[in-house]
């Protein structure tokens, strides 16, 4: 690995033509939510609230324990101390009138977009929805795999630095397609969260009536354990900061969760046919999350130089330019590889959340890559299409977990179970095998539950 003659302080350049296997692992380590890092402001707030310095993991464990024990009282106390919001059990839930008024006052064009996006999501999620399967492999045997929607789910919507009506769409609509009847949305009591009119209007348009003014680990704990003001759910989904992610991990097992998600990430694979302006824009779109990992992998050295120029030019025009610049410096890279095959190998080892292939033959490259949360093919398919409108959910596995984890979908809200029915003749036909294995395992009651039906076959007729 060598430094490039055109390396700048804006984003790191790596020549991986002679190696590179450890490069992406090193970058992932920097993004990994270890739970032991906190900002100076966060340290001060922790000391003020808890009376002593705690790691984020210790903070989350304390909050979850208190909410589990004390219920609504602890939820309100942490909402007051951490979010500086004075709420009561009655004012925690957003009134129906507020949802209606937000919808009434919303930009009609926004509501039209929400409806079109909802239709896109419904179309895709309905097409991939699991359906019951029944087979009759032998006479008298009927086997069914049944899919039943969860009864109640909770959705975390961020609201710290920006409002996210798109998160409501990408989580609630798949749940609705699955048949979930009760959906509870939690968002921090901030202008970007539970007081954001666009987010509230989106909830109303989708028919969501439960929206709560709480966020962070305390909201996750309340949804997991339940309290007077916020009944427990079966599954918690949606993004959030480190404390939300750690809280979801903590309550997993009491409820299901979508994933333990870290910062957003993208790898762009590009060749000489790619537009440097397009590539730069796609990298900046992920770095804008700040933190967000934005990596270009290419075998065209000229493209790297052109992309650097475009990054600098486009960065100056962005609203969050300072945060985006920091993310590029900390978590960005322009990586030069030997060829397309090397690019695919390196990408597969990283297993990125988002993968955008901007080459002459993206179908060929995606066929060689197994590990990606969501892939976007071609020069005119920016990741933002998936973030906002295409149809698949934008809630995706990060940190290399897409090697075994899947993105959120309507199927994520289904509970699968089997249904088995044997007639007496079919039970008799399989009895010998069952009895033999049960006796080998020393489970004679199991064996007897079958053999007794052979001894007295007509007793239940």
From TrEMBL:
<dbReference type="InterPro" id="IPR012131">
    <property type="entry name" value="Hstdl_DH"/>
</dbReference>
<keyword id="KW-0862">Zinc</keyword>
<feature type="active site" description="Proton acceptor">
    <location>
        <position position="354"/>
    </location>
</feature>
<feature type="binding site">
    <location>
        <position position="441"/>
    </location>
    <ligand>
        <name>substrate</name>
    </ligand>
</feature>
<comment type="function">
    <text>Catalyzes the sequential NAD-dependent oxidations of L-histidinol to L-histidinaldehyde and then to L-histidine.</text>
</comment>
<feature type="binding site">
    <location>
        <position position="387"/>
    </location>
    <ligand>
        <name>substrate</name>
    </ligand>
</feature>
<dbReference type="Pfam" id="PF00815">
    <property type="entry name" value="Histidinol_dh"/>
</dbReference>
<feature type="binding site">
    <location>
        <position position="289"/>
    </location>
    <ligand>
        <name>substrate</name>
    </ligand>
</feature>
<feature type="binding site">
    <location>
        <position position="286"/>
    </location>
    <ligand>
        <name>Zn(2+)</name>
    </ligand>
</feature>
<dbReference type="InterPro" id="IPR001692">
    <property type="entry name" value="Histidinol_DH_CS"/>
</dbReference>
<dbReference type="GO" id="GO:0000105">
    <property type="term" value="P:L-histidine biosynthetic process"/>
</dbReference>
<protein>
    <recommendedName>
        <fullName>Histidinol dehydrogenase</fullName>
        <ecNumber>1.1.1.23</ecNumber>
    </recommendedName>
</protein>
<feature type="binding site">
    <location>
        <position position="446"/>
    </location>
    <ligand>
        <name>Zn(2+)</name>
    </ligand>
</feature>
<keyword id="KW-0368">Histidine biosynthesis</keyword>
<keyword id="KW-0520">NAD</keyword>
<dbReference type="InterPro" id="IPR016161">
    <property type="entry name" value="Ald_DH/histidinol_DH"/>
</dbReference>
<comment type="pathway">
    <text>Amino-acid biosynthesis; L-histidine biosynthesis; L-histidine from 5-phospho-alpha-D-ribose 1-diphosphate: step 9/9.</text>
</comment>
<dbReference type="InterPro" id="IPR022695">
    <property type="entry name" value="Histidinol_DH_monofunct"/>
</dbReference>
<dbReference type="GO" id="GO:0004399">
    <property type="term" value="F:histidinol dehydrogenase activity"/>
</dbReference>
<feature type="binding site">
    <location>
        <position position="446"/>
    </location>
    <ligand>
        <name>substrate</name>
    </ligand>
</feature>
<dbReference type="GO" id="GO:0008270">
    <property type="term" value="F:zinc ion binding"/>
</dbReference>
<comment type="similarity">
    <text>Belongs to the histidinol dehydrogenase family.</text>
</comment>
<feature type="binding site">
    <location>
        <position position="264"/>
    </location>
    <ligand>
        <name>substrate</name>
    </ligand>
</feature>
<feature type="binding site">
    <location>
        <position position="354"/>
    </location>
    <ligand>
        <name>substrate</name>
    </ligand>
</feature>
<keyword id="KW-0028">Amino-acid biosynthesis</keyword>
<dbReference type="GO" id="GO:0051287">
    <property type="term" value="F:NAD binding"/>
</dbReference>
<feature type="binding site">
    <location>
        <position position="387"/>
    </location>
    <ligand>
        <name>Zn(2+)</name>
    </ligand>
</feature>
<feature type="active site" description="Proton acceptor">
    <location>
        <position position="353"/>
    </location>
</feature>
<feature type="binding site">
    <location>
        <position position="289"/>
    </location>
    <ligand>
        <name>Zn(2+)</name>
    </ligand>
</feature>
<dbReference type="GO" id="GO:0005829">
    <property type="term" value="C:cytosol"/>
</dbReference>
<keyword id="KW-0479">Metal-binding</keyword>
<keyword id="KW-0560">Oxidoreductase</keyword>
<feature type="binding site">
    <location>
        <position position="286"/>
    </location>
    <ligand>
        <name>substrate</name>
    </ligand>
</feature>
């Amino acid at each position: 690995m060598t430094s490039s003659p055109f390396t700048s302080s804006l984003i790191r350049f790596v020549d991986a033509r002679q190696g590179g296997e450890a490069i992406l692992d090193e970058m992932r380590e920097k993004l990994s939510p270890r739970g032991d890092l906190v900002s100076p402001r966060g340290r001060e707030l922790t000391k003020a609230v808890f009376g002593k310095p705690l790691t984020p993991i210790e903070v989350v464990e304390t909050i979850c324990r208190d909410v589990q024990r004390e219920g609504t009282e602890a939820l309100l106390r942490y909402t007051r101390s951490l979010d500086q919001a004075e709420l009561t059990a009655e004012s925690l839930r957003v009134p129906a009138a507020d949802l209606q008024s937000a919808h009434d006052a919303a930009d009609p064009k926004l509501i039209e977009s929400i409806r079109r996006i909802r239709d896109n999501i419904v179309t895709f999620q309905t097409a991939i929805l699991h359906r019951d399967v029944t087979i009759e492999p032998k006479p008298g045997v009927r086997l069914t795999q049944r899919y039943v929607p969860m009864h109640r789910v909770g959705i975390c919507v961020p609201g710290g630095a920006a409002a996210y009506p798109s998160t409501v769409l990408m989580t609630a609509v798949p749940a609705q397609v699955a048949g979930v009847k009760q959906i509870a949305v939690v968002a921090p009591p901030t202008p970007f969260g539970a007081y954001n009119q666009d987010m509230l209007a989106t909830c109303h348009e989708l028919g969501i009536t439960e929206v709560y003014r709480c966020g962070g680990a305390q909201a996750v704990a309340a949804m997991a354990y339940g309290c007077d003001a916020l009944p427990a759910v079966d599954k918690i989904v949606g993004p959030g900061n480190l404390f939300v992610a750690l809280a979801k991990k903590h309550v997993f097992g009491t409820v299901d969760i979508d994933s333990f998600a870290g910062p957003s990430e993208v790898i762009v694979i590009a060749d000489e046919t790619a537009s440097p302006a397009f590539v730069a824009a796609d990298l900046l779109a992920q770095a804008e999350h700040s933190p967000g990992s934005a990596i270009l992998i290419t075998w065209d050295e000229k493209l790297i130089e052109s992309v650097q120029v475009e990054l600098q030019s486009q960065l100056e025009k962005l609203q969050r330019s300072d945060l985006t610049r920091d993310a590029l410096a900390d978590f960005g890279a322009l990586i030069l590889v030997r060829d397309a095959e090397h690019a695919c190998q390196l990408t597969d080892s990283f297993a990125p959340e988002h993968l955008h292939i901007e080459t002459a033959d993206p179908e060929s490259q995606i066929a060689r890559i197994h590990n990606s949360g969501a892939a976007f093919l071609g020069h005119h398919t920016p990741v933002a299409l998936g973030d906002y409108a295409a149809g698949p959910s934008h809630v995706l596995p990060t940190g290399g977990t897409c090697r075994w984890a899947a993105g959120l979908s309507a199927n994520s809200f289904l509970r699968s179970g089997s249904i088995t029915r044997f007639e007496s003749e079919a039970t008799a036909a399989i009895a010998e095998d069952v009895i033999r294995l049960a006796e080998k395992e020393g489970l004679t009651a199991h064996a007897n539950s079958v053999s007794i039906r052979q001894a007295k076959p007509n007793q239940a007729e």
